[in-house]
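Appendix B, example 12.
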Amino acid sequence: MSVLYFFQSLRTPILDTLMQLITRFGEETVFMVAAIGVFWCVSKKDGYYLLSVGFLGTVLNQFLKLAFRIPRPWVRDPQFSIVESARAGADGYSFPSGHTQNAVATFGGIARFTRRRWVRGICIALSILVPISRMYLGVHTPLDVSVAFVTALVLVAVLYPVIEQTEKHPRMLTGLLAALCVIAAGYVAYVSLHTFPADIDAANLASGTENAWKLLGATVGMLLGSCLERRFVHFETKAPFWVQCVKLVGGLALLVGIRAGLKGPFLALFGHAGLAGATRYLVMVVFAAAVWPMVFRPLCRAAERRVRRRSVTKGK
């Protein structure tokens, strides 16, 4: 707690606002936008890399939270105060830090594969600043962020050479995604069958169970989507700038619509929140991996026709 009290002594309104902004780079939404953006617009291989690191890291993070059940710093030390604006995003158990896990998985992964030094520099800086912001805001201890940081960094390092081999050996990607499905299924079994102590926080357990089913659906969706894409779609990531914008903005908007629109119907259909969540995330990931990419080629052809028309017009 001494480190957190040191950060508490540094707080100012300007720093509070800055750190609250920095900490948002560790949110799940940022990870998903970055990973899907890379998958659609930069490199399918590197997109699968970020998604694999992120999903596996999330499973480990959620498992450790429920296994150790360590409360937040202000619960352990009632005299300690946090930056109040950060309280809303700091529910659940403290150990390990989910924001740190997401930030290192996202930006550490990008730093690993990018060839642009300025991009690598920004990503490394964010991978360091997000954990610092969590301690500055008072929502995580040094142990929380250090374990999450190391866990994510190990996954970034270990999975990269595996993903690099998938272009030459596509079956390795199938095997990796299948392994992720097995791990996610194991986590579902853990939260469903394990006998937790009576003093466990019910909201934390419910959140962990919900996330377990969603992760299972997402990983199964990755496996199914990758098989469908390689068999039927074969989309290219390169495209003119306006096409990339349509791919990213349009695809993300549709994903948000699917996520919101299918929640109620699937819950009514299955009558089980876990199965409904898993199926909804499976549909979302398959859509992102194999359905939406079917429009990329027609969009590129439209861009080519537009360029040809301009060339003819200029020639006249």
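The mean pLDDT is 92. The CA atoms of residues 135 and 142 lie 7 Å apart.
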